[in-house]
Amino acid sequence: MFLLAAGVIVVPVGAYLAVDGAAQWAPFTYSASYLAGLALFGFFYLFHRQRCPATLVWLGSISYALYLFHLVVIDALDLIPELIPASKIGLAVVLVFLVSWLVHSWIEKPSIALGRKLSAGLRRDRVAARALPRP
């Protein structure tokens, strides 16, 4: 609880004092987004033992790809000057979810499976090495 209280106080104060040095975000914007994220985390933590809707599970599974590729899709759509802003927003949302789902399905899941397979082999080797008698 102490760390939570410290984070609620230290991060906004640090933002106003421009501790990061770059000062890329306005202090109020940075503090507000940080505290909103903290509140959102706390809200969802209250329900962490309850069954989660399948849609939220799916969003959680593609969230890293969403994070990585949303700007790529938005920048690609900016190269099409004929799109009106409202259609660009709708198209960006659809394409970001599509690209994220494809990346998750074709890259993330196979890579995770391969990593688990390789690490299982390493664990077996370590267990087998421990079972050998020491000279």
Q: What series of H and E elements makes up the topology?
A: HHHH
Domain module tally: 2
Compute the CA-based radius of gyration: 22 Å
Q: Work out the strand percent.
A: under 5%
How many individual helices?
4
Low-confidence stretches: none
Q: Give helix % range.
A: over 70%
Mean pLDDT: 84
User: Which overall shape is indicated by the principal axes computed on the Cα atoms?
Assistant: extended
> Structural class of the helix and strand makeup?
mainly alpha
What's the N-to-C terminus distance? Answer: 51 Å
Largest sheet: none
Report the count of strand segments. Answer: 0
Quick recap:
This protein is an all-alpha fold and 135 residues long. The protein has helices spanning 2-16, 27-46, 54-78, 85-131.
Fill in the keyword field for this structure:
extended, 135 residues, single chain, 2 domains, mainly alpha, 79% helix
